[in-house]
Design goal:
The structure is a homodimer. Chain A has about 625 residues and is α+β, with helices and mostly antiparallel strands. Chain A has three domains: about 200 residues, Aldehyde Ferredoxin Oxidoreductase,  A, domain 1 (4-Layer Sandwich); about 190 residues, Aldehyde Ferredoxin Oxidoreductase Protein, subunit A, domain 2, CATH 1.10.569; about 180 residues, Aldehyde Ferredoxin Oxidoreductase Protein, subunit A, domain 3. Helices cover about 40% and strands about 10% of the residues of chain A. The first copy, chain A, has a six-stranded mixed β-sheet with strand order 2-1-6-3-4-5, with helices on both faces. In chain A, strands 8-7-11-9-10 form a five-stranded mixed β-sheet. In chain A, helix 1 crosses helix 2. The longest helix of chain A has 21 residues.
Chain lengths: ~625, ~625
């Protein structure tokens, strides 16, 4: 097989170079998320300013992207996060990943910073840093459109919106408007480099796959169909996408309401998946994906009547209902559209607003701060105004644009107790008091409160693989967390979309045939080797954070979860996190990390990360 | 000579033991401050909670204390500070130091914590932890009186006041009411151990000094008389104590007014040293000191008429005039009395109030926060009420009792810009924009913004030794800082009171005779050896802080000094700190520290601190 290729673009010097990705890197990391953390760890100095020119923005895809394999063309973006100061990995969909394959790039590493706005233009073997002044200020839809107007309709692009330009700390990188790398401010890093967009316009032909490979793909697709039709316990993604989560979490009592005080929304059926299904206009799909989990929806009545959006996920619905205690079905649609166009993470925006609502209730902020907005629970009109303030960094919005951790430091007076985040990343739509192992996964996640890097399908969907989990237990399941993490890391190498991978469909047997075929690494016929890649990625991510000074002290919940009983929570009523330290102990032990959450030398060496082990010894005295 | 002795008291276990102080410790550290940092470094684990039982409270005296030598009986108290988290050294006067000598203890190390209030009672060779419940709640004057009632009039004591008991973070340890170890919360550490007082009642005879030693003392006294009569450039301490500072700093334009916005007070002559001299009732002196810098004063008219206090220093006058923009002569007297009785550091209290006044002006706090107090510049009546709130930890006072660093974190909204502190210790009465090398000394001082550990007599009194200093220059005088620091460290070993030592009177020649005689270390006949002790102490203090994570990033000014021009400042008008980084570079280089302010291995080894060098390597990777 031929070498995989990366493009290194230095915006400070203007240098653009192709580099080979060594075969050993493929054998150790497969692609995607593995490539990202490997290069970020090796190329970033500890203490790098996430918004300085020394941070790097790394796009990477997996070996299956653009090959015709289903649900495999997502792209990963890796950088040090301006929200968390940790390693961070975003992930987006649509066609950008496939287009990277078509121009034969497995990675793009963006370094440095230009003095004025630019965009990067890529054809097969042709790379150019182009003047982006005319794009600056445009929203994501306008930007993509403008690029198509300049370079033709086949040109796709990943871009930032106006909120990114204003360095809102949780700006997204958008492809096809709604298919964002949404969390952790990857768009903010891009904006800090004055890079408005990366446009890809494939000019080479797409190679036809071999007959053998085609047969493999056919078998894979058949497996996926089982899932799409609805395996027991798997969510009906093809029909409703992630909106089914609204029903599931409200029934379980883990749908966080009013800034994580309650576990279900008043009259939540007003925003159930059936209600959103009734608004569906058409299905939307990423490149080469038979699941088509995405939908376009249009609001039928009420103050947002006529507004339509696509990519309306469970998390976004929650961000604009649960967070502020509203059950208006239209507001999430309107807010999602705004966030997509301006390039804002909906989760961080929603949680920041819920935080502001609680400060308003407690009197820590007043109408003087809100320019008269009445931030009372349920008031979605005020929320819409506040969201615009965040997007434009106006008044109170300028402070909330920093995220709840920094906003609470700004407002003081005990407001940190209401700042719902882990390591600076705003909490997503799961109350950890009712899904304690999913919670542990977020507390230990290298990116902060990220729900998709070890999603506990066991707790949330009753997935019995590898065994069932008691969601209220505080001991005995850390091994499942390790498996979920390592497995998701493998999935994130670009084998599959998370929504396929997380439910362990298709089978490992298929993977053992697929991976050797696409990577040229025969060792991947061994299941253990595959899982070891996941473990290697997880440990390297942890090592990155350790090098930045993170350890056990940072694997911590907002105070609320350990001091307040969960209310209005049906079967989760009255739950609370009891002995979290014990859960951490169990998890660290299973991981082969020390009591302080630092990977042991033995563990790192067993994963072939000996040099990293030396770094850690150096770092930790 | 016989071994010097320390008393180790463990309040948790009740164990009390005498230990020998090794001769090598005397040769390396002389006594006092040197002993304190040596034991604190060796016995404290990094990361120790300053208010936890693991912190230690170390009292130490120097070799001349109680020997009949003049101005030599001050006592040093060393602990990790609850305000700064650094090494800290307090220093107090009156008779406590001499009494330690009379019971033949060079040091007392207090460890652990009792469950209920106690006091430590000491006679010659007899030590007892006694029930202190009846003393708890008493103010410092009442406490000392009660101890004399129990143990007889010869019993002296060092004690905490009610504000210490309430763990106000800048509580003092008082002897004879006004002779406090005032700064850095040494009283808070004592209170955290439930130790109300240490009472000393000497029951042995005081040995008559040898004839030779008597002759030395006589020569020393003669030298001191030159100073007391007023050497050129030396302040008239015997007449006015430190109150002369009011005139000098207002004339120079470095008397900080309205939370360090201006450099002289409106109508400052209303509070000049002559005005305070007119209030003098009588002179007050520490044990065996011919200088008698202290005075009792009584207010003649106005709202505080009839109130009297002693130990009214320059800093205290400033804390209750300049900080809040008042020029009422009586308020500092009344406030000083309150602070002495309740056991509060006047500087930290005054700066905390000035901070609150500025927040009130800026609207960051309102009458809702102040319980209706109008904190407008010049309002000393409101300040008196606020001071009582601090002392009792009521309302706003409860927050200001944490010091301005923590209070600004509490209030947020940019209030850290108005929090005038270095490393958490509130700034004293010198505007660094007009005395830039004195400022550098405070920025690099191991205890934070402490003015007495390298007092720049060169800038403030025109002292030409070792050479004159341009107070507006930003390069060329870091060597003087080093000399001032190392020299003060030697003085603080208990050779002399700071007020004698800082003005380099008497001569080094006398010291070369005195030190070998009192320590039994012939090497002290060499001036270099003496200065090396100072350098050893300074470096060990720095190493303590490095081990706690402090470095260049912490040697920093409040923003105001580098962004706002000094106003109303006469000859200092319009001054500002320009390139502070360059001053730091120069200082670190002279010190033999690296660019990050870490002592180099070579420097530490040259001072016989090889083991500490190893610790630093361990710590710094």
């Amino acid at each position: 097989m031929k070498y995989r290729k990366l493009l290194r673009v230095n915006l400070t010097t203007g240098a653009i170079n192709e580099e080979d990705i060594p075969p050993l890197t493929v054998a150790n990391f497969i692609g995607g998320r593995g490539f990202g953390v490997n290069y970020l760890y090796n190329e970033l100095k500890p203490g790098t300013d996430p918004l300085g020119p020394e941070n790097k923005l790394i796009f990477s895809i997996g070996p299956l992207a653009g090959t015709g394999a289903p649900s495999s063309s997502r792209w990963i973006v890796t950088a040090k996060s301006p929200l968390t100061g940790t390693y961070f990995r975003g992930c987006g969909g649509a066609d950008f990943g496939a287009w990277m394959r078509f121009v034969e790039l497995d990675m793009i590493i963006v370094e440095g910073k230009t003095e004025s706005p630019v965009y990067l233009y890529i054809e097969n073997g042709h790379y150019e840093i182009k003047n982006g002044k005319n794009l600056w200020g445009k929203n994501t839809v306008e930007t993509e459109q403008a690029i198509k107007e300049i370079h033709g309709p086949k040109a796709t692009s990943a871009c930032i919106g106006p909120s990114g330009e204003r360095l809102i700390r949780y700006a997204t990188i958008a492809v096809d408007r709604g298919h964002c790398a949404g969390r952790g401010g990857m768009g903010t890093v891009m904006a800090s480099k004055n890079l408005k967009a990366i446009a890809i316009n494939p000019t080479g032909g797409v190679k036809a796959p071999s007959k053998d490979f085609k047969a493999l793909i056919a078998r894979e697709l058949a497996e996926f169909q089982r899932f799409i039709r609805g395996e027991p316990g798997s969510p009906p993604f093809s029909e409703k996408g992630t909106t089914g989560g609204v029903d599931g979490t409200n029934i379980l009592g883990v749908y966080p309401v009013r800034n994580f005080r309650e576990g279900s929304l008043d009259e939540w059926k007003k925003i159930s998946s059936d209600e959103y299904l009734a608004l569906k206009v058409k299905s939307v799909s990423c490149y080469g994906c038979p699941v088509h989990c995405d939908r376009e929806v249009r609001v039928k009545s009420g103050p947002y009547a006529g507004v339509s959006t696509k990519g309306l996920e469970y998390e976004t619905i929650w961000a604009f209902t649960g967070c502020i205690g509203s059950n208006d079905i239209g507001f999430p649609v309107a807010a999602d559209l705004l966030c997509d166009e301006l390039g804002i993470d909906t989760i961080s925006a929603g949680v920041s607003m819920g935080f502001a609502y609680e400060l308003f209730e407690k009197g820590i902020i007043t109408k003087k701060d809100t320019d008269g907005l009445e931030l009372v629970w349920g008031n979605h009109e005020a929320a819409f105004e506040l969201l615009k303030k965040i997007a434009n960094r106006q008044g109170l919005g300028d402070i909330l644009a920093e995220g709840v951790k920094r906003a609470s430091a700004y407002f003081g007076r005990g407001s940190e107790d209401y700042a719902m985040h882990i390591k600076g990343l705003e909490m997503p739509a799961f109350d950890v008091r009712g899904v304690k192992w999913h919670g542990l996964a977020m507390a230990t996640c290298p990116c902060g409160a990220f729900h998709n890097m070890a999603f506990s399908t066991q707790e949330l969907f009753g997935n019995p693989w590898p065994r069932s989990v008691d969601r209220f237990a505080e001991e005995g399941y850390a091994d499942i967390n390790k498996i979920n993490e390592d497995w998701t890391a493998v999935v994130d190498t670009g084998i599959w979309c998370n929504f396929i991978g997380e439910w362990q469909v298709p089978s490992l047997n298929l993977l053992r045939e697929l991976l050797p075929a696409v990577t040229g690494v025969p060792q991947f016929a061994d299941e253990k080797t595959i899982f070891q890649v996941g473990e290697r990625i997880t440990n390297l991510e942890r090592a990155f954070n350790v090098r930045e000074g993170f350890d056990r002290k940072d694997d911590i919940y907002p105070k609320r979860f350990t001091t307040e009983l969960l209310k209005k929570a049906g079967p989760s009523e009255g739950s609370i996190i009891g002995n979290f330290g014990k859960m951490l102990d169990e998890y660290y032990a299973i991981r082969g990390w020390d009591q302080n959450g630092i990977p042991t030398i033995e563990k790192l060496e067993s994963l072939g990360l000996g040099q990293i082990a030396k770094d850690i010894i150096k770092q930790r005295k």
